[in-house]
């Protein structure tokens, strides 16, 4: 492992490499590993009373299975998914309570595309892996496109394997759409792919976790950690590292080094999760909403919240009709979406307050015939998590709409006591196929929590799926509701404003953006006498808004002469306060961001590529 002093101070994000060729799915890869004798040193645990039909791509491991069989299954899935960036295969690897691996015989769980790894205990301590749960980069691109995977709800004791590199620490070297949640790492965690060349990485998300041996940020350009314990500390900063509600986080010091640190997270709701109770029955746990919170939800006992029996859920499988899903929702069922790709030609309609929609294995809803894949009525307390929304070849007005909005007679229903929340919800325009959607996410309901959202207009994909007139999309996220809070908002490459915030009293903690790469000329990317579009636009009528730790980058590789006038546009009023803003040109031929915010802040140009241009505070027309 490199020393901290050898970690790069900054890195550039080059053009992404083409997708890998998906390997064929073999029949041997599907199904659940057969039971056998417990491995050496593995603790006994209650077995699932009756495994529900979660489909062939949910693999449930128990500690009495031979470790060799577990390792073979994990390796087989990883070998298929390692380069399957634009494929359709989806997997959830679930570990029943108990201990897996040992110091003498570690379990190495490598995690590829569209793979979710979860413990099935009520707390992270219920499942222990001696070995590692590893996400890595790829030689040639580092971890810049290590997307669409996750790990949650388990304990990791790192044991080096014969590899001699990747598992010397717990390595979770990822970029967007690859969250780590409810993980207790007993050793050092690295977010840098130091085994790869180059070792770039670009953005990650950790919540409700304990990294006892501290964290090596390394080459991560930006990162957000929320409500976690960083143990012995955080190693270094690059451009935009943001912390809220964390124990042992670095002190506020933006811009040198660029740490943005909030003592508490203003509002949060942890992602629901599947678990086995003492009788071996499956349940979904829904954590309670929190305000002004610090640290993990499980440090002093069980996470606060309520359990829902799996019998209260309709378990959807690929091929189920939207009518069948909507019928179950109308009967008061919650929704568990098993791994796979679902073609949706009619909106899945969530109409009941407090409905839980939980996706497993990066389950993906693909719009057909211009449909909006999911809508939420004007009700409170809905929770949507673990889903990816794909645009289809016919333009959709949106991919997910939360609340109907005032313009359609809606009430912006929502309360601080029972907020609607979205966790690990991802949007994609192009990439695996041609996609078109005017807006990806529209939030009309008040008090909605947006926790780890990635809206991505693809800059790479299968041939023919990406181009200025091919995967068209105006805006990633539009917020019309009041009192909406975003914790971890990643929005990239949209052709107009990437984010438009119309609601009052909005808050964002951590924002990451790249402006579109592929505008052909300035005429195609300008409006009202302004070059380009801002990444983050707060509407002129808004009186109160606050945001912390925002970064916007430019790399116009089709035409490097292009300019964006500024990355951030907000009204000049005392109630709108923006903290710790960064712009960066990613290459010497990257295009130019003339100003950071509202005509203020220095230009990010090819001449200063890789060098952050910053504004520490902006309010009422004045930059500090």
What does this structure look like?
The chain is mainly beta and 624 residues long. Helix content is 4%, strand content 37%. It is built from 2 helices and 45 strands. The strands form 7 sheets. Strands 1, 2, 3, 4, 5, 6, 7, 9, 11, 12, 14, 15 and 16 form a 13-stranded parallel beta sheet that branches. Strands 22, 23, 24, 26, 28, 30, 32, 34, 36, 40, 42, 44 and 45 form a 13-stranded mixed beta sheet that branches. β44 and β45 form a beta hairpin. The relative contact order is 0.09. The N terminus is likely disordered.
Oligomeric description of these chains: single chain
Largest sheet: 13 strands, parallel
User: How large a portion of the residues is in β-strands, by DSSP E?
Assistant: 35-45%
Q: Which ranges are low-confidence, i.e. pLDDT below 50, for 5 or more consecutive residues?
A: 1-44
N-C termini distance: 39 Å
Which percent bin holds the helix content?
under 10%
The number of helical runs is: 2
By secondary-structure content and strand pairing, the structural class works out as: mainly beta
Write down how many β-strands occur, each being a DSSP E stretch of 2 or more residues: 45
What is the gyration radius calculated from CA atoms?
Answer: 23 Å
Average pLDDT works out at 91
Shape: globular
């Amino acid at each position: 492992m490199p020393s901290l002093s050898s970690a790069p101070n900054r890195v550039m994000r080059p053009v992404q490499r083409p997708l890998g060729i998906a390997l064929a799915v073999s029949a041997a890869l599907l199904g659940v590993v057969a039971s056998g004798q417990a491995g050496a040193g593995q603790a006994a645990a209650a077995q699932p009373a009756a495994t529900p039909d979660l489909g062939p791509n949910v693999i449930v491991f128990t500690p009495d299975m031979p470790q060799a069989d577990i390792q073979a299954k994990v390796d087989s899935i990883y070998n298929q998914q390692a380069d399957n960036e634009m494929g359709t295969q989806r997997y959830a690897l679930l570990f029943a309570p108990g201990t897996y691996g040992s110091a003498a015989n570690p379990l190495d769980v490598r995690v590829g595309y569209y793979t979710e790894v979860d413990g099935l205990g009520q707390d992270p301590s219920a499942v222990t892996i001696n070995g590692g749960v590893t996400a890595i980069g790829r030689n040639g691109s580092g971890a810049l496109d290590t997307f669409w995977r996750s790990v949650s709800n388990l304990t990791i004791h790192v044991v080096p394997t014969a590899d001699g590199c990747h598992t010397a620490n717990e390595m979770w070297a990822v970029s967007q759409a690859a969250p780590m949640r409810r993980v207790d790492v007993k050793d050092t965690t690295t977010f840098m792919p130091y085994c790869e060349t180059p070792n770039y990485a670009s953005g990650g998300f950790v919540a409700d976790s304990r990294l006892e041996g501290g964290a090596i940020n390394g080459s991560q350009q930006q990162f957000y950690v929320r409500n976690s314990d960083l143990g012995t500390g955080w190693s270094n900063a690059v451009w935009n590292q943001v912390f809220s509600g964390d124990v042992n986080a670095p002190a506020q010091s933006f811009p040198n080094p660029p740490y943005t640190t909030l003592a508490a997270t203003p509002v949060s709701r942890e992602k629901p999760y599947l678990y086995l109770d003492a009788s071996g029955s499956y349940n979904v746990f829904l954590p309670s909403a929190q305000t002004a919170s610090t640290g993990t939800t499980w440090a002093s006992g069980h996470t606060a919240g309520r359990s829902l029996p799996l019998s209260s859920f309709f378990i959807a499988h690929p091929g189920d009709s939207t009518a069948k899903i909507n019928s179950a929702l109308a009967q008061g069922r919650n929704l568990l979406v098993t791994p796979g790709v679902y073609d949706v030609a009619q909106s899945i309609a969530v109409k009941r307050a407090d409905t839980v929609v939980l996706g497993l294995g990066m389950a993906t809803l693909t719009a057909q015939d211009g449909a909006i894949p999911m809508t939420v009525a004007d009700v409170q307390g809905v929770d949507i998590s673990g889903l990816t929304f794909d645009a289809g070849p016919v333009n959709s007005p949106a991919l997910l709409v939360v609340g109907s909005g005032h313009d359609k007679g809606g009430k912006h229903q929502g309360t601080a006591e029972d907020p609607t929340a979205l966790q690990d919800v991802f949007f994609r325009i192009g990439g695996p196929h041609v996609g078109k959607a005017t807006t990806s996410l529209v939030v009309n309901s008040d008090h909605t929590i947006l926790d780890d959202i990635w809206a991505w207009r693809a800059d790479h994909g299968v041939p023919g799926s990406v181009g200025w007139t091919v995967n068209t999309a105006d805006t990633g996220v539009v917020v019309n509701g009041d009192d909406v809070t975003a914790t971890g908002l990643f929005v990239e490459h949209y052709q107009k404003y990437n984010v438009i915030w119309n609601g009052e009293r909005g808050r964002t903690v951590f924002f990451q953006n790249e402006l579109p790469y592929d505008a052909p000329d300035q005429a195609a990317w300008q409006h009202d006498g302004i070059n380009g579009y801002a990444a983050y636009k707060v509407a002129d009528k808004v009186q109160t808004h606050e945001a912390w730790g925002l970064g916007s980058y430019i790399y116009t590789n089709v035409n490097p002469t292009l300019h964006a006038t500024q990355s951030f546009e907000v009204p000049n009023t005392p109630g709108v306060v923006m903290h710790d803003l960064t712009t960066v040109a990613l290459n010497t031929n990257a295009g130019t961001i003339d100003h950071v915010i509202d005509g203020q802040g220095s230009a990010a140009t090819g001449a200063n590529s890789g060098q952050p241009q910053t504004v520490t505070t902006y309010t009422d027309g004045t930059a500090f």
